[in-house]
């Protein structure tokens, strides 16, 4: 691929929560367009995070490099201020710039139970908020100043659904996902005068590693499940959203989207993209009632 086909060559990106799912795919697709990508997470080859899954940040970094970028794995707990500050200091020392900040960190699923607020463990409720909101605030606090040292930066909050998503079955989880959408809009308000574009993005019904395991399927066999699971034929891989984000990062006119919440389907249409399997899944065409069916199936859309 020529340099003209790698429009993010020379750009430095930080993707938080890059161990698996959308975070991993975003890191890889930014690398495919030539970016240097710092991918963070808590799961390494030396030890797993409390989520206890096999994917690691080292695996992600290797995939970024194989795609054509420069992948750098950094273990970082984004609830720890000192670790985040050290991460940003390292990026400053290494490159003196940060052009793209993607906040995809989460890691709160293990704390979520479908119980009323007063019956849900208060410690678990607070842990959901800390994993889903506090980590984003800490990361933005330390990383945005480095973005501001450059010109024309991009800050993206990765959420789960737009404003019309049905109630998610848990107060804390519902609050976190709604807050991330609002955070992207709030950051856009504060960053617009600095020439930095901020917004929120969301995938549709995502065939992440964890979701595939949940249904006992693989990326090669998922269509068999679509015959019995309503609307599953509209599901997508993490790479559809990731390709949309990479296209957005390479778009010199991306400021027109500041403050909005874009779905993977919006980005697919805007940039004429296809998913990793060559399809064009359109979760935006599925109505709210159908989305409730997905939520009731046990995995969020």
UniProtKB/TrEMBL annotation:
> Which InterPro entries does this UniProt record tie to the protein?
NAD(P)-bd_dom_sf (IPR036291), SDR_fam (IPR002347)
- Pfam families found in the cross-reference section: adh_short (PF00106)
Give the PANTHER family listed for this entry.
Answer: DEHYDROGENASE/REDUCTASE SDR FAMILY MEMBER 1, DEHYDROGENASE_REDUCTASE SDR FAMILY MEMBER 1
Q: What is this protein called?
A: NAD(P)-dependent dehydrogenase (Short-subunit alcohol dehydrogenase family)
């Amino acid at each position: 691929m020529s340099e003209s086909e790698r429009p993010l060559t020379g750009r430095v990106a930080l993707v938080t929560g890059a161990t698996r799912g959308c975070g991993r795919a975003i890191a890889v697709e930014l690398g495919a367009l030539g970016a240097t990508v710092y991918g963070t997470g808590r799961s390494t080859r030396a030890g797993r995070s409390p989520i206890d899954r096999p994917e690691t940040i080292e695996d992600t970094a290797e995939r970024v490099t194989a795609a054509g970028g420069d992948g750098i794995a950094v273990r970082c707990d984004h609830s720890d201020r000192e670790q985040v500050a050290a991460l940003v200091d390292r990026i400053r020392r290494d490159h003196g710039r940060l052009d793209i900040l993607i906040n995809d960190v989460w890691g709160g699923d293990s704390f979520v139970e479908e119980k009323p607020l007063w019956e849900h463990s208060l410690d678990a409720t607070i842990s959901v908020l800390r994993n889903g909101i506090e980590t984003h605030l800490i990361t933005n606090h330390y990383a945005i100043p480095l973005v501001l040292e450059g010109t024309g930066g991009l800050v993206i909050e990765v959420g789960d659904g737009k404003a019309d998503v049905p109630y998610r079955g848990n107060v804390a989880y519902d609050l976190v996902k709604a807050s991330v959408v609002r955070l992207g809009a709030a950051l856009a308000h504060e960053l617009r005068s600095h020439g930095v574009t901020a917004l929120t993005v969301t995938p549709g019904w995502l065939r992440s590693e964890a979701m595939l395991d949940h249904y006992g399927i693989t990326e090669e066999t998922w269509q068999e499940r679509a015959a019995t699971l309503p609307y599953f034929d509209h599901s997508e891989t993490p790479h559809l959203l990731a390709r949309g984000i990479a296209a957005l990062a390479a778009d010199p006119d991306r400021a027109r989207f500041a403050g909005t919440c874009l779905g993977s389907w919006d980005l697919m249409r805007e940039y004429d993209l296809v998913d990793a399997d060559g399809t064009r899944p359109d979760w935006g065409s599925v109505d709210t009632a159908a989305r409730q069916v997905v939520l009731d199936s046990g995995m969020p859309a």
